[in-house]
Amino acid sequence: MCQHGISDIVVHAPYIINLAAIKEDTYSLAKDFLELELARTKAIGANYLVIHPGAYTTSTLEEGLERIIMAINSILKKDDPILLLETMSGKGTEIGRNFNEIKKIIDKIELKDNIGVCLDTCHLHDSGYDIINNFDKVLEEFDNLIGKKYIKVMHINGSINLIGSRKDRHANLGANKNNPRGEDKIGISAIKKIISNPICQNIPLILETPWIDEKNNLYKEEIELLRGH
Predict the structure, then answer these.
(1) E-only strand ranges, 104-150
(2) Can you say how many angstroms the Cα of residue 1 is from the centroid of all Cα atoms in its chain?
(3) How far is residue 75's CA from residue 211's CA, in Å, rounded to a whole number?
């Protein structure tokens, strides 16, 4: 980690955790699993655990938000790692598709020092935020609603979708029309501008682009591209 300039480990919780679930068995599973994940994250010395806030499925957004808040407040302890709510693309009944929904959760979390946000470039773009032309304005909106101090981690991804599609389909960075995973609609120039923003200088940036196959995975090339090599 020292050799490659990596200082933080970030854990991502399994997608089966749905803190907004209305069904009691699903909700209980989600809470139990999150509690275990926090313990495991702490045990390996990691500082952050990223979760998808949840989906309200057959209930309502308001009910889903309350379920998430109740679950986190019942589980989170002062000595736990920081729990990060990931911004979502808005497909289906996902919660976290806009900053206002994230704010409603954070506002009612009791242990404010143990909660934060993970921004995802694909999710922001797909949910309708113009990170290509106005990333600074997007950050300004986040800061006014929530506060930039809550941004602890970023997922760096392209998207095969047009802005506002609400589909969540990641693309390799700068991928062109001939790429099997699809053309990146965000573009490498926009991604480079994003990661050069001051907000990105002292937080973990995680590449979450698609795995193609063992012979053609692009992670090394994409990281070198972002680092300017």
Answers:
(1) 115-120
(2) 22
(3) 34
Q: How far apart are CA 169 and CA 158, in angstroms?
A: 8
Name the residue among 101, 152, 115, 154 with its Cα closest to residue 131. 154
Using one digit for the tens of pLDDT, what is the confidence trace for 202-217?
999 999 998 877 776 7
Structure tokens at 98: 């806009």
Q: Is the pTM above the cut of 0.90?
A: yes
Token pair for 130: 């113009």
Q: What are phi and psi of 207, to 5 degrees?
A: -80, 125
Residue found by looking up tokens 């991604």 in the block: 191
CA–CA dist 113, 80 (Å, integer): 10
Pairing between β-strand 151-156 and β-strand 170-171 as defined by DSSP bridges: unpaired
Q: Residue 78 has what DSSP assignment?
A: T
Alpha-carbon gap, residue 81 to 75, rounded angstroms: 12
pLDDT tens-digit profile of 131-188?
A: 999 999 999 999 999 999 999 999 999 999 999 999 989 999 876 666 666 789 999 9
